[in-house]
From TrEMBL, chain A:
Residues 21-89, 275-297 form the PAS domain. GO terms for biological process: response to blue light. InterPro entries: PAC (IPR001610), PAS (IPR000014), PAS-assoc_C (IPR000700), PAS-like_dom_sf (IPR035965). This is LOV domain-containing protein. Keywords: Chromophore, Flavoprotein, FMN, Photoreceptor protein, Receptor, Sensory transduction. SMART domains: PAC, PAS. Coiled coil: none annotated. It holds the Pfam family PAS_9. PROSITE patterns: PAC, PAS. PANTHER family: PROTEIN TWIN LOV 1. GO terms for cellular component: nucleus. GO terms for molecular function: photoreceptor activity.
Automatic annotation (TrEMBL), chain B:
One of its GO terms (biological process) is glucose metabolic process. This is GDP-L-galactose phosphorylase. Pfam families: GDPGP1_C, GDPGP1_N. GO terms for molecular function: GDP-D-glucose phosphorylase activity; guanyl-nucleotide exchange factor activity; hydrolase activity; nucleotide binding. Residues 70-242 form the GDPGP1-like N-terminal domain. GO terms for cellular component: cytoplasm.
């Protein structure tokens, strides 16, 4: 868990200079930044406005996936559309019902855009802005909600700004918040319609809300672009060149991130068949960091006592495009050796042709981690299956947007 | 009597057309001749029947969940059978693509799926037909084609027994491979296999299917059902399922709400989709959703209306599609051009996933073609509204069968997600009280 949190901190800190956080804190908007290359596609940054709107603390949000804000009233089709936009690495603007920490639902305009690496065009982060949609206030039915609802609205500075000032003011004045709260609480009492809050009726954002979202996200992207330059890892809002050195799309990376076992993907079409993906578990098993293994052929795992006939067997199977299982002596970064029950299989993409080979490692003698009783061999095969599904499916569709 | 001729899909390596002799076959099947002492992995799942909380159904919703155990089991066993050569072809070697366009229909070129055999006659005018032991059924498949038994747990937790005996008396449900897969992981869910139920939906079996969808916890693992007369080829109760990590066109279709039932199930109709159908979602419990759908299916069965069902989004959305293509085909009302594609529009095709056997059809596959084919499958607007009326009369009579409307909320422990933060959870919907933690 520590390493996960470390990755999350790094996700932001490595890419953007220290002043970036301060700059982002200047914005009153509600937004989150997520990293698709970390297993679970977690939130790595949440604006204070977002935390206020949702009612969560920073610790409750960082590291979590956006789905924690969804609930039973959230339109499933909308969730699917967002999933698709992530998969296709393109922007999306959609009305969505979310839930605060206290369980109350609210409609908002969800506007998300990918952030690309200037150098190689892959997706580094997704930025999502949430603009609450304020409509005619209605009380929730049932006891005790009226007052509660009023209180909630009070706390949400952005909503109040909308009704009372009718213009897009950045600053939130805390005195006026209290004042506005009283005004709104009065509104809800006077509102004659006491029907249930119809969460199912989709709320449409109006043009001013859409403009607000677009402006906010542009501002955030400007900040990120600016503060990424000094770290030498520049980003931009539009994808530049796709220098395709065996790059996996972020959707494939997200899918592969769900697989908890140790495995790698290698690309037979690139010179010397390098590793193009390595799972966290693989890195843990072998002791290497990700940038120490990506781009290298697997042979670095072999050492003095590795049986050359086993290596030959692997080579032959790959040549014959067949699966194989071998028992091979491998070496970790610290030179400690271990017996690796290695299973290798070709993986085809949507064209029907082989796109990668997957290698799944099991350390012999290691206590069976899987408390639920799948045999190691079965778990290996399940990794192969999951990889095959991901690679095939995710290479079928519209290619990532080139914008 | 209406019949059509088609070559049935071979789902098992032991499927033959002529009648089998009943005595010992020496082929390691599931009948009395071979079943004694047989073992099969058993997966028992915890039945989720609690009220849907504000935070979604499963506890581990805070991250992109890891591959669920059932998912791993199914994928692992399937890959195992693949490496053992049990499938008639490698489906991952079949070219596939999303057809450009607004809807994203999916086409696959699969020349090996359909055999060049003599077509069999299928009766398409009766949705309910009695089980016929002389015909092929799933007790005749080889044991190696069965992956595991799938049952609700007696305790309150998921359990896995890699080597459980098959207890026929217990009437287990099983998951078997489809040897002519449409996609990776194509399996058959056969409820209470030894009871030899005919292909018709009942409440218990449908709930099993929904449970499986929820348990796999993968929005790209969908289950489907074809009634007789809607291109089911085997009259032995079964559902199908497979993995495809892209959205189906039917899932993207906008919907318009028609009503919400007492149990909290929302029913909508699809808009801007070539086949008219209903979408069921929500429900205070999974059982509410399940019963609403199965009661609707039973209504259609009783009224002899063929239909298909798609279970998607981990069991959160279910599509019900009455159809009439087989009848049209039998009456000679389908154009030769469409017939030539030999696409039988069953649940997957209707959902937007077309398997094409001719290269020409694959290369020329377009959104217009796909739309045109599926439009032929759909009921007309008038007929659809008539069918809806029948369905609503059957199910919206106030009570979903489990006396709902005043469902007492579950104690707070049930709601607790696995992560440590506790927070008040509000139950949205008809319930009047707020559950605080």
């Amino acid at each position: 868990m520590e390493s996960q949190l470390g990755l999350i901190e790094q996700s932001f800190n490595v890419r953007y200079s220290v002043w970036a956080r301060e700059a982002l804190d200047e914005f009153p908007d509600n937004f989150t930044i997520t990293d698709p290359s970390i297993s679970g596609h977690p939130i790595v940054f949440a604006s204070w406005g977002f935390l206020k709107m949702s009612g969560y603390s920073k610790e409750e949000v960082i590291g979590k996936n956006g789905r924690i804000f969804q609930g039973p009233g959230t339109n499933r089709r909308s969730v699917m559309e967002i999933r698709e936009a992530i998969r296709q690495e393109r922007p999306i603007q959609i009305n969505l019902l979310n839930y605060r920490k206290d369980g109350t639902p609210f409609w908002m305009l969800f506007h998300m855009r990918p952030v690309f690496s200037k150098e190689d065009g892959r997706v580094i982060h997704f930025v999502a802005v949430q603009v609450p949609i304020l409509r005619k206030l209605r009380r929730l039915s049932g006891s005790g909600f009226g007052g509660r609802n009023g209180v909630n609205l009070c706390e949400d500075g952005s909503m109040l700004r909308e009704t009372v000032f009718g213009s897009c003011r950045r600053e939130v004045c805390s005195d006026s918040v209290v004042e506005l709260g009283r005004v709104l609480a009065l509104d809800s009492v006077l509102d004659s319609d006491n029907g249930e809050l119809e969460v199912e009726e989709p709320c449409e954002a109006n043009d001013s809300e859409k403009l607000r979202a677009a402006t906010a996200i542009n501002n955030i992207l400007s900040v990120l672009t600016h503060y990424s330059e000094s770290t030498g890892r520049s980003v931009c809002g539009k994808r530049g060149s796709l220098s395709g050195m065996g790059l996996l799309g972020s959707s494939l990376i997200i899918s592969l991130g769900r697989i908890k076992q140790s495995f790698v993907l290698t690309d037979p079409h690139l010179p010397d068949m390098p590793i193009v993906y390595a799972s966290d578990a693989f890195l843990k098993l072998t002791g290497y960091a990700r940038d120490e293994v990506l781009g290298r052929n697997c042979r670095f795992l072999s050492g003095v006592d590795t049986d050359s006939s086993t290596l030959f067997q692997i080579k032959e199977s790959i040549r014959m495009e067949q699966a194989c299982t071998v028992r091979i002596l491998n070496y970790r970064k610290d030179n400690n050796s271990f017996w690796n029950l290695l299973h290798i299989s070709p993986v085809r993409n949507a064209t029907g042709k082989i796109a990668y080979f997957v290698g799944v490692q099991i350390e012999e003698g290691c206590r069976n981690q899987d408390r639920q009783g799948l045999s190691p061999e079965m778990r290996q095969l399940s990794v192969v299956g999951a990889v095959k599904v991901a690679v095939r499916s995710l290479s079928m569709g519209a290619s990532p947007s080139k914008s | 009597m209406l019949r059509i001729k088609r070559v049935p899909t071979v789902v098992s390596n032991y499927q033959k057309e002529e009648a089998e002799d009943q005595k010992g076959c020496g082929r390691n099947c599931l009948r009395n001749c071979c079943i004694k002492g047989a073992k099969l992995p058993l997966y028992t799942y915890k039945r989720i029947n609690k009220i849907v909380s504000g935070k979604g159904l499963l506890g581990h919703e805070d991250k992109e969940p890891p591959v669920a155990f059932l998912d791993s089991l199914l994928l692992g066993e399937w890959e195992d059978r693949m490496q053992r050569g049990l499938f008639r072809y490698d489906v991952t070697a079949c070219e596939t693509k999303v057809i450009p366009g607004e809807h994203g229909f999916i086409a696959q070129l699969n020349e090996g799926r359909h055999l060049k055999k003599r077509p069999t006659e299928f009766r398409v005018d009766k949705v309910l037909q009695p089980f016929d032991g002389n015909k092929f059924n799933f007790t005749k498949v080889g044991q190696e084609e069965v992956l595991f038994q799938f049952e609700p747990s007696e305790d309150d937790e998921v359990q896995f027994f890699p080597d459980a005996p098959i207890d026929v008396e217990n009437s287990p449900s099983v998951v078997a491979i489809n040897v002519s897969p449409i996609e990776y992981g194509h399996v058959l869910l056969i409820p209470r296999i030894f009871e030899c139920l005919p292909q018709r939906i009942d409440r218990e079996s449908f709930l099993l299917a929904l449970d499986m969808a929820a348990e796999a916890a993968n929005p790209y693992f969908r289950l489907g059902y074809n009634s007789l007369g809607a291109f089911a080829t085997i009259n032995h109760l079964h559902f199908q399922a497979y993995y495809l990590a892209v959205p189906f066109p039917i899932e993207k279709a906008p919907t318009k709400k028609i009503t919400t039932l007492d149990g909290g199930v929302k029913i909508s109709e699809m808009l801007n989709y070539p086949v008219r159908g209903l979408v069921f979602e929500g429900g205070n419990t999974l059982q509410d959703l399940s019963d609403a759908v199965s009661d609707s299916c039973i209504c259609l069965q009783v009224n002899n209306i063929p239909y298909n069902v798609l279970i998607s989004d981990c069991g959160k959305r279910v599509f019900l599609l009455p159809q009439c293509y087989a009848e049209k085909q039998a009456l000679g009302e389908v154009s030769a051009e469409l017939l030539d594609t030999q696409v039988n529009p069953a649940v997957w095709e209707i959902s937007g996933h077309m398997v094409l056997k001719r290269k020409k059809d694959y290369e020329e596959a377009s959104e217009e073609n796909a739309w045109r084919l599926l439009a032929e499958v759909s009921l007309s607007e008038e007929r659809f509204q008539e069918v809806n009326a029948l369905i609503f009369e059957a199910i919206a009579g106030g009570d979903n069968g489990n006396g709902n409307g005043n469902v007492t909320p579950q104690p707070p422990e049930e709601f607790n997600p696995i992560d440590k933060s506790s927070h008040p959870t509000m139950v949205v919907g008809n319930q009047e009280c707020l559950v605080l933690q």
